[in-house]
Amino acid sequence: MTAGPAPRPVIVVMGVSGSGKSTVGGLLAERLGVPYAEADDFHPAANIAKMSAGHPLDDADRAPWLDAIAEWITGRGDLGGVVSCSALRRRYRDRLRAGTTPVFFLHLDGSPELIAARLAARMQHFMPPGLLDSQFAALEPLAPDEAGAVVTIDGGPQQITERALAAVPR
Ligand SMILES: Nc1ncnc2c1ncn2[C@@H]1O[C@H](COP(=O)(O)OP(=O)(O)OP(=O)(O)O)[C@@H](O)[C@H]1O
Ligand SMILES: [Mg+2]
């Protein structure tokens, strides 16, 4: 009797704005040969308008957004996937892993100085750099009981992606 293919988790690339979630998430999905989704694309228009005006979202705003991402994760079954999502608070991560699909969190971790510099270099994006402080204030690092890993964001995107590949379940 032959076993079927091993179930593959959905990898949620998490971290503050500017930590490189979209950059690394896309590269990681390519290397793993699985679909990639961008959490920003799951925001209702009202959330984008609010962020564009420089206001942080509250948890009521985030609920439909997290629900939509969780639905995408569930839709992957055990075929694998990568989705970028800040997932700063444990309760957001709890929402994302509440379904039957296994979820693995990959936290892109770097200093506020490094991330601020990368944000400053990035133009035409709806996240004003002034919100970085509130992002760090909100960040709740992965707890020991959460399936996941921390990857440092020093170096270039390819280097970080190699680190990510070494850290995720294969
Ligand atoms: N390793 C890297 N070295 C240099 N620049 C990088 C690196 N990774 C990402 N960048 C650049 O830093 C900026 C932030 O990266 P990116 O947009 O991927 O972050 P993000 O976490 O997706 O941010 P957001 O939460 O706002 O969507 C981008 O301009 C990106 O091109
Ligand atoms: Mg992004």
From TrEMBL:
Its EC number is 2.7.1.12. Pathway: Carbohydrate acid metabolism. GO terms for cellular component: cytoplasm. InterPro entries: P-loop_NTPase, Shikimate/glucono_kinase, Therm_gnt_kin. It catalyses: D-gluconate + ATP = 6-phospho-D-gluconate + ADP + H(+). The keyword Thylakoid does not apply. Gene3D superfamilies: P-loop containing nucleotide triphosphate hydrolases. It is an enzyme of class 2 (transferase). Keywords: ATP-binding, Gluconate utilization, Kinase, Nucleotide-binding, Transferase. It holds the Pfam family SKI. The keyword tRNA processing does not apply. Belongs to the gluconokinase GntK/GntV family. NCBIfam families: therm_gnt_kin. This is Gluconokinase. The gene is idnK.
